[in-house]
């Protein structure tokens, strides 16, 4: 491999890494647990990686934890261009898939070809939920904001007048990756309703 080719590859990789710094500016509706401010996408992805390491024993199937970490770190990269779609925003969800596909093409084209394909494959695997790793990653992606909402006394739920049954429906996929974590989620939802944080 000639030096010029290596330099071009490295330049593409650095361009991509600089571009995804924008994740730090993509705000989610979820608050930090202290309720002081909204969480950003980079914080969410970092936290999910630690959820994966910490909670791996609760996966219902045998998983490759390094793959789960890759999935949770990659899954929201498209939001650099597509923005975050609030899970309870029915109108936003209508265009979410199209926006995120277009964003993936734009963002991952910054990378060398082999990595372009690899990052597309991570997003596709996460979204398909066909592998044990994707199911567990998806479960964590639902559990983390649920815990944030609960431990911030339902601040975001109350702001958006969210019903307990909507939270139960949206988070039901936790059970696809971990029955134990779904039992926890159900108890959280029940208590949040009892506390008056959910309709």
Q: Care to describe what's here?
A:
The protein is globular and about 65 Å long. The chain contains eleven helices and two strands. Strand 1 and strand 2 form a beta hairpin. Helix 2 (41-55) packs across helix 7 and helix 3 crosses helix 6 (113-128). It is mainly alpha-helical. It has helices spanning 3-19, 41-55, 65-74, 79-82, 90-108, 113-128, 132-151, 155-159, 164-171, 174-177, 179-195; strands at residues 27-31, 38-40. It has one domain: Hypothetical protein af1432. The longest helix has 20 residues, at 132-151. Helices cover 68% and strands 4% of the residues.
CATH topology description:
Hypothetical protein af1432
The residue-averaged pLDDT reads 94
User: What is the count of structural domains?
Assistant: 1
Strand content: under 5%
Known CATH architecture: Orthogonal Bundle
Specify the overall morphology: globular
Compute the gyration radius: what is it?
Answer: 18 Å
What structural class results from the helix and strand content?
A: mainly alpha
- Helix/strand order, N-terminal first: HEEHHHHHHHHHH
User: What about the largest sheet?
Assistant: 2 strands, antiparallel
* Low-confidence residue ranges: none
What is the number of strand segments?
2
Could you tell me how far the N terminus lies from the C terminus, measured between alpha carbons in angstroms? 61 Å
CATH class term: Mainly Alpha
CATH superfamily: Hypothetical protein af1432
Number of helices: 11
Helix content: 55-70%
Largest beta sheet: what is the strand line-up? 1-2
């Amino acid at each position: 491999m000639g030096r010029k080719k290596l330099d071009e590859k490295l330049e593409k990789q650095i361009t991509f890494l600089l571009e995804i710094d924008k994740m730090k500016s993509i705000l989610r509706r979820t608050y930090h647990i202290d309720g002081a401010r909204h969480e950003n996408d980079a914080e969410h992805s970092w936290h999910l990686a630690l959820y994966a390491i910490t909670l791996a024993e609760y996966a219902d199937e045998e998983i490759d934890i390094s793959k789960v970490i890759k999935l949770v770190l990659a899954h929201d990269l498209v939001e650099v261009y597509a923005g975050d779609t609030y899970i309870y925003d029915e109108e936003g969800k209508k265009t979410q898939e199209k926006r995120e596909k277009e964003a993936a093409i734009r963002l991952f084209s910054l990378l060398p070809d082999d990595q372009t394909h690899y990052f597309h494959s991570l997003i596709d695997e996460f979204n398909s939920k066909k592998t044990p790793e994707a199911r567990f990653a998806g479960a964590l992606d639902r559990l983390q904001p649920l815990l944030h909402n609960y431990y911030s006394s339902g601040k975001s739920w109350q702001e958006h007048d969210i019903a307990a049954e909507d939270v139960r429906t949206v988070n039901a996929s936790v059970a696809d990756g971990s029955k134990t974590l779904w039992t926890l989620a159900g108890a959280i939802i029940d208590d949040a309703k009892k506390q008056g944080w959910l309709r």
